[in-house]
Input
Amino acid sequence: MEIRSLVFKALADPTRRAILDRLREGDLNAGDLAAGFDIGKASISHHLNLLKQAGLVKARRQGQQQIYTLHTTVFQEALQWLMNFPTQPTPPTPPKGSEKSGRNGPLG
Amino acid sequence: MEIRSLVFKALADPTRRAILDRLREGDLNAGDLAAGFDIGKASISHHLNLLKQAGLVKARRQGQQQIYTLHTTVFQEALQWLMNFPTQPTPPTPPKGSEKSGRNGPLG
DNA sequence: TTGATATTTTGAAAATTTTCAAAATATCAT
DNA sequence: ATGATATTTTGAAAATTTTCAAAATATCAA
Output
């Protein structure tokens, strides 16, 4: 699967977004991460694996524990794709003959 | 399903991203949109419905045709969530006692 | 109303995802 | 080596997604 789909797929799940939100406050090991959720450790492990595939987190071993960290390069790429979209609703253009004018970038 | 998951789920599929990319160049009706892809019109219709649920596109009827348009408010919200993440890899913090310092926002 | 065109909905199959419990692996302490 | 702790992998069930073909719906033109 291509990286861009992987990234958005990873972000499409609330559990995985919650994991990312918690990692923003600092690195965490798998057990502590899992402790915050209702689902089992095995499931969290799968989610972490998906986040790893997407390149959104990295893990390093520290003794018995796996410490998970945000890896933020990938966020920027997702961001950049999103920033290609105009912020204002497209003005009602006639559907086939499209006269292009200056288009707005996001956020302004 | 909550809107944020819907948005990222919508963006997670290459066909749907391609639809959005094509709509950036101008509004299109369902048939012309479908013409660009290998899959059937019914499938495109499902994808469009998902994009509509996510609030990423709007449709208006023009005679027999449904004209699809980007609806970009939602992109901004996705963007804003992504912008909460730091750009630099988190410096190796000791996992439990986290001393917070000034954190970077994205892109700078 | 009838026929043609445009699009969506339905029903069903194939593929994927999420989850759990149990088993397997890795590291540490003795 | 043995036992304890931390995490991942496996096997399997339930839920969801993607797709297609066929049927249904909506609009237009005569």
User: Anything to note?
Assistant: Residues 92-103 of chain A have pLDDT under 50 and may be disordered. The CA atoms of residues 61 and 67 of chain A lie 6 Å apart. The beta strands of chain A are 28-29, 57-62, 65-70. The helical segments of chain A are 3-11, 14-24, 30-35, 41-53, 73-82.
